[in-house]
Design goal:
This protein is an all-alpha fold. It has helices at about 25-35, 40-55. The protein has one domain.
Length: about 70
């Protein structure tokens, strides 16, 4: 059950209904934030963000401000 795991060990994400981004971070940095908090290896963060960018058709825009 999910309640048996501490929050930082749950393999779960969330999507906010209103904008919940860091305006001072790039698109990439916003997308990578949660993965970095989980202390995933840098290579895995890069791979996951790249896949997510492709999925939402934002590849090439990752260095822009949100």
């Amino acid at each position: 059950m999910i309640n048996d795991e501490p929050p930082h060990k749950r393999d779960m994400s969330m999507v906010f209904q209103s904008y919940a981004i860091f305006p001072h971070l790039s698109v990439y940095e916003n997308m990578a934030y949660g993965l970095k908090v989980q202390r995933l290896p840098k290579d895995e963060v890069r791979e996951r963000v790249a896949r997510a960018l492709e999925l939402v058709e934002l590849t090439g825009l990752e260095n822009r401000a949100p």
